[in-house]
Amino acid sequence: MSALPPFCLREVGRFQRDLNHQDTLYSKRDPTEARSQADPRLECSPSMSAFLGLDVAKSSCVAHILTDGAPRTIEFENNPRGFAKLIRWLPDCDATSVSACMEPTGNYHLDLATRLFEEGYTVFVANPWSVKQFGKAAMNRAKTDRADARVLAQFARAGLCRYPWAPVADERAELTALNRRRGELMERKVALSNQRHSARCAGVKDSLDQELDFVKQAIREIDAAIRDHIRAHEDLHEEYRLLQSIPGIGPVAAAAIMAEMADWRRFDNADQLCAYAGLVPQPHESGESVRKDTPLCPLGSHRLRRACYMPGLVVIRTQALFSEFISRMRRESRRPKVIIAAIMRRLLRLVYGVLKTGKPYDPAYQPDRPQPRTDSQESVDATMDPRGETEAGSAGEQPAKGYPRGAHQPVIARGRLRLPHARTPSPSPGGRLPIPEKTH
After folding, report:
1. Cα 25 to Cα 272: distance, rounded to the nearest angstrom
2. Which of 6, 181, 208, 427 has its CA 20 to 30 A from that of 371?
3. Residues 50, 66 contacting (CB under 8 angstroms)
């Protein structure tokens, strides 16, 4: 932190609140906290003594390390031989005291991140938008591989890397790859269908028909591969079965949601999963004049949102779930997109619930809630101040003017207006509510 320019220190506090927004919004606890007991690398430790910034490209990488001594930079190839060169170049210190930070670059960073993780180093995969804003705050003018590696090392030393990276299980990574390949084929199918519809030449139509048939066959094969892969792994098959118990979620949607969540256990609660999907509001307000519409947060996973979109439409059209909630939003003249986003968020919370409990969706399920307060308890609380004194027994207290004595009147205690717990009066034996006495 001390190596940052003075004009950058003020911005660091803001970054610490705003960065990693898609993983921390509405979250109360670090999702890696439960796993940190099994692996110390999954717990952010302030004892880091070396900070390694890695700029990863297709065939080459640049590393910049910040230690107590002079900073150093090295270039190496993005292959196992280059990774071995990096390991030998790192200082002779405890691996758990080195914090390696890199940006996600498609799949090119995965091999390096996995090798460092296997060697015992703590790896962070930072949000590129966060790193870019950090570099702007530090007034960095250069844009080179070496400059980017230096910014990543400074980003790690500033304490802005909060969630250590860990590799996903092989079977879940393969499911993600298969599902994304299916998405690419579906997009190609739609494009070919549109071209076929507008084509005028017979030769062009025949060529498009042949390609369209090939893509449809590839989609059928990839669907079969996804089903076989899920059936081959017991944990995936159980999650697949649980998700399909939710109305509106079919085989394709269940596989897509599982693929884009990767591992639901990394989320500590349903709010974190919704934030990861970007199904949380992003208000834009300032003072009394700026009151813009509240959109969804764009920092989430667009693929997971896409996987939840069609199930949300099915629920709205069939009224299979949340019928009262949908009717209320329509009565309030909410826009269709607002209703769809709200249903998608509720569906994702159900997804997390059935996966965490390991039980299929039960429409009659009622969560355990605290018992409602009785009338006698509320009447006692209504006449007690925080010190445990009643209205009649506390000196210096008097009922507020214009209110009769009763459970609903505010009490002026020692110069402060205190409002008791409001409650609805019980109906009279005749079925009507009692009429309050008039006061003068």
Report:
1. 7
2. 427
3. yes
Do the bridges between strand 122-125 and strand 285-286 make them parallel or antiparallel, or are there none, so unpaired?
unpaired
Amino acid occupying residue 342: A
Token pair recorded at residue 172:
């879940």
Q: What does the CA dihedral 357, 358, 363, 367 come to, rounded to 10 degrees?
A: -10
Instruction: Tell me the C-alpha distance between 172 and 253, whole Å.
Output: 16
**pLDDT score at 375:** 56
- pLDDT of 425 strictly over 60: no
Q: What are phi and psi of 65, to 5 degrees?
A: -115, 135
User: For the packed helices 110-119 and 80-89, what is the interaxial angle rounded to 10 degrees?
Assistant: 40
Chain Cα centroid distance, residue 436:
50
H-only helix segments in 319-440 = 323-331, 336-357, 375-382
Q: What distance lies between CA 88 and its chain's CA centroid?
A: 37
| Burial (CB count within 10 angstroms: exposed 0-12, middle 13-18, buried 19+), residue 46 | exposed
Is the C-alpha dihedral spanning 19, 302, 101, 24 positive or negative? positive
What tokens appear for 216 in the block? Answer: 């449809």
pLDDT tens-digit readout, 242-271 = 999 999 999 999 999 999 998 899 899 999
Model pTM? 0.70
User: What DSSP element (H or E) covers 198?
Assistant: helix 170-198
What's the chain's Rg over C-alpha atoms? 29
Cβ within 8 Å of residue 30, ≥6 positions away: 36, 44, 162, 163, 268
> Domains in the chain, ordered, with CATH?
6-157 (3.30.420.40), 170-232 (1.20.58), 244-364 (no CATH)
- The four Cα atoms 203, 207, 213, 218 give a dihedral, to 10 degrees, of 180
Q: Which residues contact 403 (CB under 8 A, 6 or more apart)?
A: 409, 410, 439
pLDDT at 162 over 70: yes
Token pair, residue 11, equals: 């911005």
pLDDT in tens, 1-57: 445 444 444 444 444 444 444 443 333 344 334 443 445 444 444 455 789 999 999
For residue 139, give the DSSP letter. Answer: T
Whole-number pLDDT of residue 93: 64
Measured distance CA(268)–CA(368) in Å, rounded: 19
- DSSP state string for 33-90: TTGGGT-GGGS--TT--EEEEEEE-SSEEEEEEE-SS--EEEEEESSHHHHHHHHHHS
Structure tokens given for 309: 């979109």
Geometric angle at alpha carbon 81, from 78 and 85, rounded to 5° = 90
